[in-house]
Amino acid sequence: MKTVALGRTGIQVPVLAMGAASLGSIYHPVSQQQANDTVTTALEHGVNYFDVAPYYGLTKAETALGGALKGVPRASYTLATKVGRYGDSQWDFSREATLRSIDESLARLGTDYIDVIQCHDIEYGDLHQLVEEALPMLRELQQSGLVRHVGITGYDLALLEKLAVEQKVDTVMAYCTWTLQDRRLGDVARRLNQAGIGVLNASPLSMGLLTRGGAPTWHPAHEDVQNACRAVSALCDREGVNISQVALQFALTTAAEQGIATTVIGTASKENMLDNIHWCEQPLDAALLQKIDELIAPVLNIGWDVLPGNGGKAQK
Ligand SMILES: NC(=O)c1ccc[n+]([C@@H]2O[C@H](COP(=O)([O-])OP(=O)(O)OC[C@H]3O[C@@H](n4cnc5c(N)ncnc54)[C@H](OP(=O)(O)O)[C@@H]3O)[C@@H](O)[C@H]2O)c1
Q1: Whose CA is nearest to atom 38 of ligand 1?
Q2: Model confidence over 141-169: pLDDT tens digits?
Q3: What does the DSSP assignment read for 98-159?
Q4: What is the pLDDT of residues 80-108, one digit of tens each?
Q5: Pocket lining: 84 vs ligand 1, CB cutoff 6 Å
Protein backbone atom coordinates (compact mmCIF):
# COMPACT_ATOMS: atom_id res chain seq x y z
CA MET A 1 0.00 0.00 0.00
CA LYS A 2 1.34 3.41 -0.97
CA THR A 3 2.02 5.74 1.96
CA VAL A 4 2.12 9.52 2.19
CA ALA A 5 3.04 12.07 4.85
CA LEU A 6 0.24 13.01 7.24
CA GLY A 7 0.84 16.75 7.39
CA ARG A 8 3.83 17.54 9.56
CA THR A 9 3.24 14.71 12.02
CA GLY A 10 6.06 12.58 10.66
CA ILE A 11 3.57 9.73 10.27
CA GLN A 12 3.61 7.93 6.93
CA VAL A 13 -0.01 6.98 6.44
CA PRO A 14 -1.30 4.41 3.95
CA VAL A 15 -3.56 6.05 1.35
CA LEU A 16 -6.31 3.70 2.54
CA ALA A 17 -6.90 3.61 6.30
CA MET A 18 -9.33 1.54 8.34
CA GLY A 19 -12.13 3.17 10.31
CA ALA A 20 -13.13 0.91 13.16
CA ALA A 21 -16.53 2.41 13.98
CA SER A 22 -18.12 -0.57 12.29
CA LEU A 23 -16.42 -2.88 14.83
CA GLY A 24 -18.78 -1.29 17.34
CA SER A 25 -21.70 -2.95 15.50
CA ILE A 26 -23.10 0.39 14.34
CA TYR A 27 -24.09 -1.01 10.93
CA HIS A 28 -24.72 -4.66 11.81
CA PRO A 29 -23.73 -7.04 14.61
CA VAL A 30 -20.01 -7.83 14.54
CA SER A 31 -18.25 -10.64 16.42
CA GLN A 32 -14.71 -10.46 17.81
CA GLN A 33 -13.71 -13.06 15.22
CA GLN A 34 -14.95 -10.80 12.39
CA ALA A 35 -13.06 -7.88 13.95
CA ASN A 36 -9.88 -9.98 14.19
CA ASP A 37 -10.18 -11.20 10.58
CA THR A 38 -10.80 -7.70 9.18
CA VAL A 39 -7.92 -6.12 11.10
CA THR A 40 -5.53 -8.98 10.23
CA THR A 41 -6.42 -8.67 6.54
CA ALA A 42 -5.88 -4.91 6.67
CA LEU A 43 -2.47 -5.29 8.31
CA GLU A 44 -1.39 -7.99 5.85
CA HIS A 45 -1.91 -5.47 3.03
CA GLY A 46 -0.30 -2.44 4.64
CA VAL A 47 -3.52 -0.82 5.87
CA ASN A 48 -1.98 -0.05 9.24
CA TYR A 49 -3.71 3.19 10.27
CA PHE A 50 -6.74 2.58 12.50
CA ASP A 51 -9.26 5.23 13.52
CA VAL A 52 -11.68 4.61 16.38
CA ALA A 53 -13.49 6.45 19.20
CA PRO A 54 -15.03 5.71 22.61
CA TYR A 55 -18.41 6.75 21.13
CA TYR A 56 -18.47 3.99 18.49
CA GLY A 57 -20.71 1.27 19.85
CA LEU A 58 -20.34 3.01 23.23
CA THR A 59 -16.79 1.62 23.75
CA LYS A 60 -17.39 -1.67 21.89
CA ALA A 61 -15.35 -0.59 18.85
CA GLU A 62 -12.28 0.30 20.92
CA THR A 63 -12.51 -2.97 22.83
CA ALA A 64 -12.87 -4.99 19.62
CA LEU A 65 -10.00 -3.14 17.92
CA GLY A 66 -7.80 -3.59 20.99
CA GLY A 67 -8.58 -7.30 20.97
CA ALA A 68 -7.80 -7.60 17.28
CA LEU A 69 -4.46 -5.80 17.67
CA LYS A 70 -3.36 -7.90 20.66
CA GLY A 71 0.10 -9.30 20.00
CA VAL A 72 0.72 -7.10 16.96
CA PRO A 73 3.98 -5.12 17.43
CA ARG A 74 2.89 -1.65 18.52
CA ALA A 75 5.32 0.18 16.24
CA SER A 76 3.87 -1.56 13.17
CA TYR A 77 0.59 0.36 13.21
CA THR A 78 -0.74 3.84 13.87
CA LEU A 79 -3.63 4.29 16.28
CA ALA A 80 -6.01 7.23 16.25
CA THR A 81 -8.85 7.65 18.70
CA LYS A 82 -10.95 10.50 20.06
CA VAL A 83 -12.14 12.35 23.13
CA GLY A 84 -15.19 14.46 23.85
CA ARG A 85 -18.12 12.50 22.45
CA TYR A 86 -19.57 9.79 24.66
CA GLY A 87 -23.13 9.29 23.41
CA ASP A 88 -25.57 10.32 20.68
CA SER A 89 -26.08 13.65 22.45
CA GLN A 90 -23.29 13.58 25.02
CA TRP A 91 -20.23 15.81 24.73
CA ASP A 92 -17.70 16.75 27.41
CA PHE A 93 -14.51 18.63 26.58
CA SER A 94 -13.52 19.26 30.21
CA ARG A 95 -9.97 18.51 31.40
CA GLU A 96 -11.18 15.77 33.74
CA ALA A 97 -13.29 13.99 31.12
CA THR A 98 -10.47 14.27 28.56
CA LEU A 99 -7.92 12.71 30.89
CA ARG A 100 -10.31 9.98 32.05
CA SER A 101 -11.31 9.18 28.46
CA ILE A 102 -7.70 8.73 27.38
CA ASP A 103 -6.94 6.46 30.34
CA GLU A 104 -9.95 4.32 29.46
CA SER A 105 -9.11 4.25 25.74
CA LEU A 106 -5.54 3.15 26.49
CA ALA A 107 -6.87 0.26 28.59
CA ARG A 108 -9.41 -0.83 25.98
CA LEU A 109 -6.88 -0.55 23.16
CA GLY A 110 -4.18 -2.36 25.14
CA THR A 111 -1.51 0.26 24.55
CA ASP A 112 0.43 2.91 26.46
CA TYR A 113 0.27 5.67 23.86
CA ILE A 114 -2.05 7.04 21.19
CA ASP A 115 -0.55 8.31 17.95
CA VAL A 116 -3.34 10.73 17.01
CA ILE A 117 -5.89 11.94 19.56
CA GLN A 118 -8.80 13.88 18.13
CA CYS A 119 -11.57 16.02 19.60
CA HIS A 120 -14.70 14.33 18.28
CA ASP A 121 -17.50 16.05 16.32
CA ILE A 122 -16.51 19.48 17.56
CA GLU A 123 -19.49 21.40 16.16
CA TYR A 124 -21.86 19.81 18.66
CA GLY A 125 -19.72 20.39 21.75
CA ASP A 126 -18.89 23.43 23.88
CA LEU A 127 -16.20 25.17 21.80
CA HIS A 128 -15.07 27.40 24.66
CA GLN A 129 -14.45 24.30 26.79
CA LEU A 130 -12.74 22.60 23.86
CA VAL A 131 -10.27 25.46 23.43
CA GLU A 132 -9.76 26.26 27.12
CA GLU A 133 -9.68 22.73 28.54
CA ALA A 134 -9.51 19.77 26.15
CA LEU A 135 -6.84 21.09 23.76
CA PRO A 136 -4.48 22.35 26.53
CA MET A 137 -4.90 19.01 28.34
CA LEU A 138 -4.04 17.12 25.15
CA ARG A 139 -0.96 19.32 24.59
CA GLU A 140 0.18 18.50 28.15
CA LEU A 141 -0.28 14.80 27.48
CA GLN A 142 1.66 15.25 24.25
CA GLN A 143 4.60 16.56 26.28
CA SER A 144 4.46 13.45 28.46
CA GLY A 145 4.34 11.18 25.41
CA LEU A 146 0.93 9.64 26.18
CA VAL A 147 -0.42 11.09 22.95
CA ARG A 148 1.73 12.02 19.98
CA HIS A 149 -0.41 14.30 17.79
CA VAL A 150 -3.58 16.30 18.32
CA GLY A 151 -6.43 16.68 15.86
CA ILE A 152 -10.09 17.57 15.47
CA THR A 153 -12.95 15.87 13.64
CA GLY A 154 -16.40 16.85 12.47
CA TYR A 155 -18.79 17.65 9.65
CA ASP A 156 -18.83 21.47 9.66
CA LEU A 157 -15.96 22.29 7.29
CA ALA A 158 -15.86 26.03 7.96
CA LEU A 159 -15.57 25.43 11.69
CA LEU A 160 -12.98 22.68 11.25
CA GLU A 161 -10.80 24.95 9.12
CA LYS A 162 -11.12 27.98 11.41
CA LEU A 163 -10.35 26.04 14.58
CA ALA A 164 -7.58 23.96 13.01
CA VAL A 165 -5.69 27.06 11.87
CA GLU A 166 -6.32 29.08 15.03
CA GLN A 167 -5.37 26.25 17.37
CA LYS A 168 -2.57 24.89 15.17
CA VAL A 169 -3.78 21.29 15.40
CA ASP A 170 -1.87 18.51 13.67
CA THR A 171 -4.75 16.76 11.86
CA VAL A 172 -8.30 17.31 10.66
CA MET A 173 -10.72 14.49 9.91
CA ALA A 174 -13.86 15.39 7.97
CA TYR A 175 -16.48 12.86 6.93
CA CYS A 176 -18.92 12.36 4.05
CA THR A 177 -17.68 15.55 2.33
CA TRP A 178 -15.31 14.13 -0.26
CA THR A 179 -17.44 11.52 -2.01
CA LEU A 180 -19.23 10.89 -5.29
CA GLN A 181 -22.16 12.89 -3.91
CA ASP A 182 -20.53 15.62 -1.79
CA ARG A 183 -17.27 17.29 -2.85
CA ARG A 184 -17.03 20.22 -0.48
CA LEU A 185 -13.93 19.12 1.43
CA GLY A 186 -11.58 19.69 -1.52
CA ASP A 187 -11.00 23.45 -1.20
CA VAL A 188 -10.69 23.25 2.58
CA ALA A 189 -8.37 20.24 2.43
CA ARG A 190 -6.01 21.97 0.01
CA ARG A 191 -5.68 25.00 2.30
CA LEU A 192 -5.20 22.85 5.42
CA ASN A 193 -2.62 20.72 3.67
CA GLN A 194 -0.73 23.84 2.60
CA ALA A 195 -0.73 24.92 6.24
CA GLY A 196 0.95 21.62 7.15
CA ILE A 197 -2.15 20.06 8.71
CA GLY A 198 -2.77 16.40 7.86
CA VAL A 199 -6.20 15.85 6.30
CA LEU A 200 -8.13 12.60 6.62
CA ASN A 201 -11.20 11.96 4.48
CA ALA A 202 -13.52 9.67 6.45
CA SER A 203 -16.54 7.79 5.13
CA PRO A 204 -15.87 7.62 1.37
CA LEU A 205 -19.04 5.50 1.08
CA SER A 206 -20.90 8.26 2.95
CA MET A 207 -21.73 5.97 5.88
CA GLY A 208 -23.31 3.33 3.67
CA LEU A 209 -25.20 5.68 1.33
CA LEU A 210 -22.89 4.67 -1.53
CA THR A 211 -23.31 0.91 -1.09
CA ARG A 212 -25.58 -1.58 -2.84
CA GLY A 213 -27.51 -2.04 0.41
CA GLY A 214 -28.04 1.70 0.79
CA ALA A 215 -27.93 3.90 3.87
CA PRO A 216 -28.80 2.62 7.35
CA THR A 217 -32.08 3.89 8.86
CA TRP A 218 -30.24 6.39 11.10
CA HIS A 219 -28.51 8.05 8.11
CA PRO A 220 -29.08 11.83 8.08
CA ALA A 221 -29.17 12.32 4.28
CA HIS A 222 -32.41 13.66 2.79
CA GLU A 223 -34.66 11.23 0.89
CA ASP A 224 -33.92 13.04 -2.41
CA VAL A 225 -30.20 12.42 -1.87
CA GLN A 226 -30.82 8.79 -0.94
CA ASN A 227 -32.96 8.31 -4.07
CA ALA A 228 -30.26 9.79 -6.31
CA CYS A 229 -27.68 7.47 -4.75
CA ARG A 230 -30.01 4.49 -5.30
CA ALA A 231 -30.21 5.52 -8.97
CA VAL A 232 -26.41 5.65 -9.15
CA SER A 233 -26.21 2.19 -7.60
CA ALA A 234 -28.69 0.84 -10.17
CA LEU A 235 -26.63 2.41 -12.98
CA CYS A 236 -23.44 0.82 -11.62
CA ASP A 237 -25.21 -2.55 -11.38
CA ARG A 238 -26.27 -2.28 -15.03
CA GLU A 239 -22.63 -1.61 -15.89
CA GLY A 240 -21.56 -4.62 -13.83
CA VAL A 241 -19.76 -2.58 -11.16
CA ASN A 242 -20.39 -2.27 -7.43
CA ILE A 243 -21.20 1.38 -6.55
CA SER A 244 -18.79 1.08 -3.58
CA GLN A 245 -15.94 0.39 -6.00
CA VAL A 246 -16.53 3.61 -7.95
CA ALA A 247 -17.12 5.58 -4.74
CA LEU A 248 -13.88 4.40 -3.17
CA GLN A 249 -11.87 4.82 -6.36
CA PHE A 250 -13.23 8.35 -6.79
CA ALA A 251 -12.04 9.28 -3.29
CA LEU A 252 -8.66 7.60 -3.71
CA THR A 253 -7.76 8.83 -7.18
CA THR A 254 -8.64 12.45 -6.37
CA ALA A 255 -7.19 12.59 -2.84
CA ALA A 256 -3.65 13.76 -3.63
CA GLU A 257 -4.69 16.70 -5.80
CA GLN A 258 -7.03 17.84 -3.00
CA GLY A 259 -4.38 17.64 -0.31
CA ILE A 260 -6.09 14.68 1.36
CA ALA A 261 -3.53 12.34 2.91
CA THR A 262 -5.71 9.30 3.44
CA THR A 263 -9.19 7.90 2.91
CA VAL A 264 -10.65 6.23 6.00
CA ILE A 265 -13.09 3.49 5.09
CA GLY A 266 -15.09 1.43 7.54
CA THR A 267 -15.79 -2.25 7.25
CA ALA A 268 -16.19 -5.17 9.60
CA SER A 269 -15.90 -7.67 6.77
CA LYS A 270 -12.67 -9.35 5.71
CA GLU A 271 -14.07 -9.83 2.19
CA ASN A 272 -15.04 -6.17 1.84
CA MET A 273 -11.65 -5.10 3.21
CA LEU A 274 -9.98 -7.24 0.55
CA ASP A 275 -12.20 -5.74 -2.18
CA ASN A 276 -11.36 -2.24 -0.95
CA ILE A 277 -7.64 -3.03 -1.06
CA HIS A 278 -7.85 -4.48 -4.57
CA TRP A 279 -9.94 -1.53 -5.80
CA CYS A 280 -7.07 0.75 -4.75
CA GLU A 281 -4.95 -0.83 -7.45
CA GLN A 282 -7.53 -0.68 -10.25
CA PRO A 283 -8.25 2.40 -12.38
CA LEU A 284 -11.42 4.46 -12.03
CA ASP A 285 -13.78 4.05 -15.01
CA ALA A 286 -13.86 7.66 -16.27
CA ALA A 287 -16.78 7.04 -18.65
CA LEU A 288 -18.88 5.59 -15.83
CA LEU A 289 -17.95 8.49 -13.55
CA GLN A 290 -19.24 10.91 -16.18
CA LYS A 291 -22.62 9.14 -16.26
CA ILE A 292 -22.71 9.14 -12.44
CA ASP A 293 -21.92 12.86 -12.36
CA GLU A 294 -24.96 13.54 -14.55
CA LEU A 295 -27.23 11.53 -12.23
CA ILE A 296 -25.81 13.03 -9.07
CA ALA A 297 -25.76 16.68 -10.28
CA PRO A 298 -29.17 17.65 -8.78
CA VAL A 299 -28.02 16.58 -5.30
CA LEU A 300 -24.30 17.32 -5.54
CA ASN A 301 -22.98 18.85 -2.29
CA ILE A 302 -26.40 18.56 -0.65
CA GLY A 303 -25.33 17.47 2.80
CA TRP A 304 -27.67 17.28 5.78
CA ASP A 305 -26.57 20.73 6.86
CA VAL A 306 -28.09 21.98 3.59
CA LEU A 307 -31.18 19.73 3.44
CA PRO A 308 -31.70 17.62 6.57
CA GLY A 309 -33.16 14.15 6.44
CA ASN A 310 -34.73 12.19 9.25
CA GLY A 311 -31.53 10.69 10.66
CA GLY A 312 -29.93 11.32 14.04
CA LYS A 313 -26.99 13.57 13.26
CA ALA A 314 -29.08 16.16 11.45
CA GLN A 315 -30.69 17.22 14.71
CA LYS A 316 -28.45 19.03 17.12
N1 LIG B 1 -16.94 12.54 13.14
C2 LIG B 1 -16.00 11.66 12.91
O3 LIG B 1 -14.93 11.73 13.48
C4 LIG B 1 -16.26 10.55 11.94
C5 LIG B 1 -17.50 10.44 11.31
C6 LIG B 1 -17.68 9.38 10.42
C7 LIG B 1 -16.66 8.46 10.20
N8 LIG B 1 -15.47 8.58 10.85
C9 LIG B 1 -14.39 7.58 10.66
O10 LIG B 1 -14.42 7.10 9.34
C11 LIG B 1 -14.58 5.69 9.34
C12 LIG B 1 -15.36 5.25 8.14
O13 LIG B 1 -16.68 5.73 8.18
P14 LIG B 1 -17.95 4.77 8.20
O15 LIG B 1 -17.53 3.39 8.50
O16 LIG B 1 -18.96 5.38 9.08
O17 LIG B 1 -18.50 4.93 6.72
P18 LIG B 1 -18.03 4.38 5.27
O19 LIG B 1 -16.63 3.93 5.32
O20 LIG B 1 -18.38 5.44 4.31
O21 LIG B 1 -19.04 3.17 5.04
C22 LIG B 1 -19.11 2.07 5.87
C23 LIG B 1 -20.17 1.15 5.33
O24 LIG B 1 -19.75 0.68 4.05
C25 LIG B 1 -19.75 -0.74 4.03
N26 LIG B 1 -18.64 -1.18 3.18
C27 LIG B 1 -17.30 -0.99 3.37
N28 LIG B 1 -16.61 -1.56 2.37
C29 LIG B 1 -17.51 -2.10 1.52
C30 LIG B 1 -17.42 -2.83 0.31
N31 LIG B 1 -16.24 -3.12 -0.24
N32 LIG B 1 -18.56 -3.24 -0.29
C33 LIG B 1 -19.75 -2.96 0.25
N34 LIG B 1 -19.92 -2.28 1.41
C35 LIG B 1 -18.81 -1.86 2.04
C36 LIG B 1 -19.65 -1.17 5.47
O37 LIG B 1 -20.27 -2.42 5.69
P38 LIG B 1 -19.46 -3.78 6.03
O39 LIG B 1 -18.99 -3.65 7.44
O40 LIG B 1 -20.49 -4.83 5.85
O41 LIG B 1 -18.34 -3.86 5.05
C42 LIG B 1 -20.42 -0.08 6.19
O43 LIG B 1 -21.80 -0.37 6.15
C44 LIG B 1 -15.26 5.39 10.69
O45 LIG B 1 -15.03 4.05 11.08
C46 LIG B 1 -14.56 6.37 11.58
O47 LIG B 1 -13.31 5.86 11.94
C48 LIG B 1 -15.25 9.63 11.70
Answers
A1: 267
A2: 999 999 999 999 999 999 999 999 999 99
A3: HHHHHHHHHHHHT-S-EEEEEE-SGGGS-HHHIIIIIHHHHHHHHHHTSEEEEEEEES-HHH
A4: 999 999 999 999 999 999 999 999 999 99
A5: no
